Amino acid sequence: MDDAIATHSSPAEVARLREQVAKYEALLAQREEQLAQATQQRDEFKLKILRLELRLAQFLKQAYGPRADRLSCIGQLLLDFAGHLDALPTDVAELLKGVEASAPAEARPRRLRTRGRRDLGELTDLPLIEQKYELTGEACNCPRCQQPREQIGADVSYTIDFVPGTFTRIKHIQCKYACRACEHDGFNPNIALGVKTGGSPIDKGMPGPGLLSFIAVSKFADYTPLHRLEGIFARQGFELDRSTMCAWMADVAALALPVYARMADRVRRAHVLATDDTVMPLLEPGKAKQARMWIYRGDDDHPYNVFDFTTSRGRDGPAQFLQGFSQVLLADAYGGYDGVVVAQELQRAGCWAHARRKFVDAESAGPELVRAVVHLINALFAIERRAKDLPAAERLRLRQVESQPALDRLRNLLIEQKLKLLPKHPLAAAVGYVLNQWEPLTLFTTDPAVPIDNNLAEQQMKRIALLRKNALFAATPHGGRIAAILSSLTSTCHRHGINPQTYLTQLLANARDITADQVDDWLPDRWKLKYAPPAEPASAEQ
Asked: pTM of this prediction?
């Protein structure tokens, strides 16, 4: 074109035309730059809308939706799943090939509820009062011949009644003895008192072990705050101030401290130690501080649930508790554990329930991809349900044969999607979480003792949530420590199907006589084998 301009135009005209071309090219470049900026702003605006919609969906689910990590419209999802696969940016059908054959979706077993009237005659663990009703006098005579009728049998029926708890005064009379032969003018009578048994565990205290255990269980197992207990006791005819009960709980925690310390020591010997934490507000002037309550759950060989209270969520809390622990730590991706894991050379296991939840919460940002990922993760859980009751060697083999191929397909899918998602896309965080935690998340395929999730430890956080909801806060760090000790005992009792009030009553009644070499006998699992039959079902932890 420049040659044509130079041939048919004068030099001035050529310069003018070239100047116009340059101007138009600059304008075009400016317009292209503006278009690129507008496109970028549009994409950022769409991402912002997507993130806001996702947050709105999460808040609505939190307020009104189910707690379970289920995708929306699950029934329609199963019908339309094949149609959604075609819309995915990768061939998910190929990725899922073989997973469904090796690990078919299994229906989670449901707990059947007994319907109809219960056979009250089988409740032999409840006290029984018999009331016999007979015909006497003229009522026993036959209305036809007026002869006395003879008993030929009986109809038996049952009712259940309830007698509210009552307070009992126990009068302790310690007889005093003196030696008349040794007494001279009132001196050296060698006075002795009868040995007092069954008194208060608290030195010079008023409450018996039954009352103390009832208050502890009511607050830390039934989550009834002390001001409500104050009203309940007043209705039973005994006024008891909440501040007094609070002081008593401190005394109970001090008496139970040796058992708590031994439980913590045993938990640190576990091969797999599961942990989690939640907020436990700490009362301070102006505004409550966001303190933390931690759970450390031992494995089946060290079956104790130990809580620990810290004033912050810093790494110092778990670092101090986990001193001496050297095996597998099962936890979420909280960075506070990183220093402990590195310093103590621990293996770290991840939780697939956490990973799945991140995708479920972001479902509205990419339904097709989320459903494909959740389908693969659910296949892993289906395999685990089949492996649950298998010996360790068979469980490991099943995981390597069936779970490992599913994990490989899932990783390939996530890597491919990570390259296509914008960095600020809501699903990018979920994909990044799984890929960054891949080694901890896949440890269960090489260690049969490692579970696929951390749900059993997370379930114990419900105890603290209910305690927090009813008691609102810990008044002092010492109060948080008391809550940790008594929550540990009641939680471990529930884990072993023990009535916590029975256990605490016996523990408090004997606490002052327990020597250091006898503490192991008062661990809840040991105590159950020695003293107590099961009192409550232990099929699911609270």
From this structure: 0.77
